[in-house]
DNA sequence: GCGATCAGCT
DNA sequence: CACAGCTGATCGC
């Protein structure tokens, strides 16, 4: 597709550019002074777009609906002759506005670029996406599948988001006297917040920028920037950590801070990432009973805990953080199901990190449709990637230590204050900005 | 002084 | 060695 189209890449020289979703790792290189050509995106992405890039020339956006097939005329870079490309958008269910792109055309063969996606067998949305994808494909075979390989390893196994969301709700409900902070990024995990709000009949505090986003998405009424209206706050990852939670819980015991409404607080870390650190040995950083290895990890205690109901489990990081595998990326089983469904002739990962991600062909190549002419040899794992299968203990420990490391910088504390993790500053900020 | 890029952090 | 993303330092214009 060189010289014709590019997806989530913004180098000079393409005739059409495609954006899968509004996360910064897929927008690296996009800026307000964009002038390289038309940029295709979904309606929701287009709605949020001007708030990410304030001076962007919106006449360059090409907004396509999910479902229908569109046709574009391009110039073949070699023959200089006109050639058509058909494009269909499929819901990727990764974050608001996220889509996959299905390309077809003489010069293109049939290519599916998933972007980041979650493929939950039980979800209404995935079923709908599945129908639309199969409809769009018809009898065509996918020649090239470019797939989200974030969790492309059998080790990465986690339940649907709905299940984890209920576990989060249970944790919050079992701490009725606590404030709760939930780590979220600028876009994504809205469904978790909505479920919490609905189940517990409570508003969710967010930063003003995030409130703006939620309003655009139509969820404005359940979010607030007024601290006094709720005990549940969604805060950015970077203002969330063991140290912050420790501070909040120490301050909540001091008389002086009671006036500032600082209460005992728990943290919820809804992320696939801490799960990665466990590697093949489930017990590396957990302690089933009292035989803990916490001494080896100064400043942090990690307990694997069975929840009251027995069916759900979570990991505790430190005394106050509950970590749960709520992921906006497909787990391994879902990737496997996806490949079985679309049966591509060839498969390529889109997560480019050379170190921690395995060539998806290693685990999933055998599910691709055998093709006599272009069959790819089963790819060997690069040497570097092998430890992923069971990240070495020392490696995981190093990672873990890094995560738990206590920050001492005053500046960063102030930053965290501003971001809602702490109340001291937000008491005034929160009230003055409070939603009208 | 500004944007792009990178290092560092959670 | 990073789901995503902020901040601050540095470099080139």
TrEMBL record:
The record, for Gene3D superfamilies, names: 3.40.50.12650, Ribonuclease Z/Hydroxyacylglutathione hydrolase-like (3.60.15.10)
Which Pfam families would you find in this protein's record?
DRMBL
One cellular component (GO) term of this entry: nucleus
Q: Which residues form the DNA repair metallo-beta-lactamase domain?
A: 222-344
What are this entry's molecular-function GO terms? Answer: 5'-3' DNA exonuclease activity; damaged DNA binding; endonuclease activity
Compartment list: Nucleus
List, in alphabetical order, the GO biological process terms annotated in this UniProt record.
DNA recombination; double-strand break repair via nonhomologous end joining; interstrand cross-link repair
Keyword terms, alphabetized: DNA damage, DNA recombination, DNA repair, Endonuclease, Exonuclease, Hydrolase, Nuclease, Nucleus
Family statement drawn from the similarity comment of this UniProt entry:
Belongs to the DNA repair metallo-beta-lactamase (DRMBL) family.
Q: What is this protein called?
A: Protein artemis
Recorded source organism is Aquilegia coerulea
């Amino acid at each position: 597709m060189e010289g014709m189209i590019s997806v989530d890449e913004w180098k000079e020289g393409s005739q059409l550019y495609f954006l899968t979703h509004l996360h910064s790792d897929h927008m690296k290189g996009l800026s307000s002074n964009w002038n390289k050509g038309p940029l295709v995106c979904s309606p929701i992405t287009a709605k949020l777009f001007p708030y990410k890039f304030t001076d962007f020339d919106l006449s360059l956006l090409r907004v396509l609906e999910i479902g229908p097939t569109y046709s574009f005329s391009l110039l073949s870079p070699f023959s200089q002759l006109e050639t058509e490309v058909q494009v269909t958008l499929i819901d990727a269910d990764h974050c608001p506005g996220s889509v996959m792109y299905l390309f077809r055309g003489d010069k293109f063969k049939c290519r599916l670029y998933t972007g980041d996606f979650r493929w939950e067998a039980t979800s209404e949305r995935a079923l709908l996406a599945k129908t639309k994808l199969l409809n769009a494909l018809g009898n065509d075979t996918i020649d090239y599948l470019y797939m989200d390989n974030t969790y492309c390893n059998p080790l990465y196994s986690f339940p649907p988001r709905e299940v984890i969301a209920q576990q989060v709700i249970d944790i919050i409900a079992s701490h009725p006297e606590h404030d709760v902070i939930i780590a979220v990024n600028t876009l994504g995990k809205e469904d978790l917040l909505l479920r919490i709000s609905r189940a517990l009949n409570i508003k969710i505090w967010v930063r003003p920028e995030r409130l703006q986003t939620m309003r655009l998405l139509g969820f404005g009424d359940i979010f607030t920037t007024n601290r006094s209206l709720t005990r549940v706050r969604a805060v950015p990852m970077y203002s969330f950590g063991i140290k912050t939670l420790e501070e909040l819980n120490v301050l909540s015991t001091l008389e002086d801070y009671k006036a500032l409404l600082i209460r005992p607080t728990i943290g919820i870390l809804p992320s696939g990432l801490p799960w990665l650190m466990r590697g093949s040995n489930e017990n590396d950083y957990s302690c089933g009973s009292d035989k803990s290895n916490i001494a080896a990890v100064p400043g942090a205690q990690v307990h694997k805990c069975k929840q009251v109901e027995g069916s759900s489990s979570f990991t505790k990081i430190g005394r106050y953080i509950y970590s749960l595998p709520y992921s906006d990326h497909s787990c391994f089983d879902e990737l496997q199901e996806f490949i079985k469904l679309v049966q591509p002739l060839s498969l390529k990962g889109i997560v480019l990190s050379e170190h921690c991600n395995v060539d998806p062909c290693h685990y999933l190549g055998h599910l691709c449709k055998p093709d006599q002419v272009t069959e790819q040899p089963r790819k060997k794992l690069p040497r570097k990637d092998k430890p992923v299968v069971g990240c070495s203990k020392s490696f995981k420990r190093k990672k873990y230590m890094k995560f738990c490391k206590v920050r001492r910088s005053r500046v960063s504390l102030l930053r965290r204050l501003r971001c809602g993790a702490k109340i001291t500053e937000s008491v005034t900020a929160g009230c003055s900005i409070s939603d009208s």
